[in-house]
Amino acid sequence: MNSAPASDLPDDLPFMDAFPAPSRETWRAAVDKVLKGADFEKRLVGRTADGIRIEPLYDSASPALRPLRGETGRWHVAARLDHPEPGEAQRLALADLEGGADSLTLAFAGAPAARGYGLVADDVAALDASLDGVMLDLIRLRLDPAPHGRVNALMLAALVERRTIAPDTTAIDFGLDPVGQLASTGSLAAPWPEIGRRLTQTIRALKARGFAGPFITADARPWHEAGASEALELGAMLATAIAYLRALEAEGFSLAEARDAISFVLVADTDEFLTIAKFRAARLLWARVQEACGLTPTPMVLHAETAWRSLTRRDPWVNLLRGTIATFAAGVGGADSVAVQPFTAALGLPDVFARRIARNTQLVLLEEANLWRVADPAAGAGGFEALTQALCEQAWTELQGLERQAGNGLPGIVAALAGGTLQADLAKQRDVRAKAIATRREPITGTSEFPNLREAAVSVLPVAPVARAKSETAPGKASEQDQGDLIDRLAKGAGRDMALSAPEDGLRAQALPSQRLAEPFEALRDRADAAAERPMVFLATLGPIADFAARAGFARNLFEAGGLSAPSGEGFAKDGVTDIAAALVAAFRASGARLACLCGSDAGYAAEGVASAQALTAAGATVWLAGRPGELEVELSKAGVGEFIFTGCDSVAVLGKALAIASQALSD
Questions:
Q1: Strand 302-306 relative to strand 337-339: parallel, antiparallel, unpaired?
Q2: How close are the terminal C-alpha atoms of the chain, in Å?
Q3: Strands, E, within 33-121: which ranges?
Q4: Each residue of 495-552: pLDDT tens digit?
Q5: Which runs of E-coded beta strand occur in 278-418?
Q6: For residue 418, what is the enclosing H or E element?
Q7: Are 240 and 286 in contact (CB under 8 A)?
Q8: Distance (Å, rounded) from C-alpha 535 to C-alpha 527?
Q9: For the chain, which terminus, N or C, has the lower number of CB atoms within 10 Å?
């Protein structure tokens, strides 16, 4: 059906006058009526990890002008190249590019993001083999920050020289990030002033060859993987960028030159709203930093990567959903490029299938959903504008707190790492989140909720993690080496060890952990799977199915999250059964289990709970009960109930106990 011409459409919608807009007070009165006295704040107001309020309703907002991407159009689809064997790396690179990627991220062995794998290139010839057939001047390249990142950057520049490609036709982000190295590894090979000199001389050598950069990366991944909240992640990322601004300025760069040398990496997580707000806030905050430096703000170069900490080893197919949500949020939030973690990344080196799915996640959102066609689609939405502004305020406070720690020649972020204060702040945030995971207030689908004990195995590439020998070092300081001469020598076939420098009395700090949220539950599943046969819990159901189904389902879901089998049938209250306790005992003994969990309604517990617990205890069972005991707690405890499992209990601790008890039955 053809639509009417625009000139024939009414200028207004008069029928809407019949529906007057309700006031917030009217809405609140209606909500209070539904709540029936329940606490509005507890029921309908959420809180982020930073304490930011998530209201149930927002008014529309009038968006202020805010910085957007530096280029319009599609974001760039990035794929990580991290296979240690050059031939296989080359095959994967070409498959990614032919399959729709237009950007490669090179993760050398030792890079935190390589997760124990990574490109192995002891000379430019090996790097050339890994990128054979890749037209370096037609795609974008990123170097993932890594130890010896300076040498990796020089090798890539030497490869461009070796192929006689004009450097000014390439788009390479060289990924130098000594602050990230200090955070991830706990050490830097030289004092901070020497690090600044190395950065400066390397950048000058690359610029002299015609490379445009960016050259330095302010990487938020170390903070995120160590447990940072959104505000602390943003604050630490900005503090890192400011440390680089100061280091380059001290070596003679103008602030505008230093600013243009920096790119950013931000993590896209599974909270869609917060991730969109975080990416929007990042651009606002960087513009504010530039203004404080007396610069006219220019758009930041912002790369997104889906969250490592949200990946799971169990039921990894759910990672596809996590990656989709994170990619959507990063694209809508304004990322310049996005890399999606393949869904099997937590299990090993992803194969061609997993890499293709990661790639296609982006392509579907770009080409079928057309997300790229609207710049900042969240603009004007009250919830997003409020979240963005609140994150800006919180992140600025975190940034100021880090900057105040500057001293003894160290910028704030480096001093905070060297002094351990940042590690302590991250540990506090990590502990809060770990408690939320353990109590399942933050559920992990497929792991802590709705686990699948019969999940099918997925495949990863049969590649062992890279064990690299310690490299030799050259006799002098890196800042005393001619970086341009090193590029020439590398291009002519010299090995990478030639470009290394002598170790000095460098900086030391406590290395940050890189943890996935699912690890506590995965450790429990691993314990259960290692048993000769699967540990089991006997569900002692009381009453008809209608009475016990809810709590039996809850108990089964909980126990299976720890790898314990907890089968339940139609119950024991069947026609002709007069002695329920005797029926429970007979079924318990036949099961071979040691742990029995009573499951029923509150009325069933009042009528049969004590007698059933006594009978099962007498039969040698360790008896637990699903649900809160209420007024029956003392009586049930005396009858032998040793543990009560309920929504909000510490599931990790409870499952650890259950595994220990159930394992006794297997060893008897």
A1: parallel
A2: 75
A3: 46-47, 53-54, 76-81, 103-106
A4: 998 888 767 778 999 999 999 999 999 999 999 999 989 999 999 999 999 999 999 9
A5: 302-306, 337-339
A6: helix 412-419
A7: no
A8: 10
A9: N
